[in-house]
Specification:
single chain; mainly alpha
């Protein structure tokens, strides 16, 4: 149950009780209203917090379509990895040599 489902009459009555218990301070109507609202939401058996835990539980049991569960199989290098490493090393040596340019 959210704020919209709590009747304003219930909030009004509790806010009035809080205001009286606090010595009828002037200029604090909003403070008492918000406190009454907070208390009523917390006391409600169908609060947002309980539905939030249901959403959290549901999220842990599912995966988004773009993120499937891992296979837990160890990664294997490609079959031609050695040849690629050798070619990369050769290219790096070639590019690190000073070029012979005519001045």
């Amino acid at each position: 149950m959210g704020i919209a489902k709590i009747e304003s009459q219930a909030i009004r009555e509790l806010a009035y009780q809080l205001w009286e218990a606090d010595g009828r301070r002037d200029g604090c109507a909003e403070e008492y209203w918000l406190e009454a609202e907070r208390r009523l939401i917390a006391a409600s058996p169908h609060t947002h917090a309980s539905s939030s835990s249901a959403v959290d539980e549901s999220a842990t049991q599912s995966f988004p379509a773009s993120d499937p569960p891992a296979s837990h199989i160890p990664d294997q290098p490609p079959a031609n990895a050695d040849a690629k490493w050798a070619a990369a090393e050769k290219a790096q040596k070639k590019s690190s040599r000073p070029s012979r340019s005519a001045h």
